[in-house]
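[Q] Does anyone have a clean structure-token version of this?
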Amino acid sequence: MRRLAATAVAAAAVAAGCSKSERAPESADPASGFCTIRAPGDTGPAMTWPPLQGKPPAPAPRWRWVNVWATYCKPCVTELPRIPKWQDRLASSGIAVDLTFVDVDADDGDVAAFRQDYPDTPMSLRLADPDTAMPAWFKTLGLTGSPTIPLQIFIAPSGKIRCVRAGSVEEPDYAAVEALLKAG
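[A] Here you go.
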């Protein structure tokens, strides 16, 4: 019975046009497919900050990783502790990266309550008016439609945006992040 099932699967694969000798070529770039929008070299736009409660960070002489999150976003909350750990791993590989977290919650009380429940939450900048500022900012990043959070923005030392990822980062994505930052 197992042999019959295996034969049926193999026949279906051949009929669908798949074979071991005709696999799609694997990309030599682990970061390929990671970015929703990717700009090679310094071809991306300069990073512009949306209206924030407080001052935007000064330009960094190294990579900057911006994580856009909210307390109501389960994937955001899940990845928050992972990103500083990755910063440490990257540093041990010789890759310096500054982290900036931008919270898009509309209510200060939600953030204060969240910080009480999760005291290790990294300090974050806050979007001044998320309902208006977030769609406008996402558009300047090249995102169209209704992009969701979390959002990852990787800014090269030149201040140019190299990669925008609409979505969370999970453990298997570490290799892509490391490759992106190593590529310079």
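[Q] Thanks! Anything notable?
[A] The beta strands are 37-38, 52-53, 63-69, 97-103, 125-127, 151-155, 161-166.
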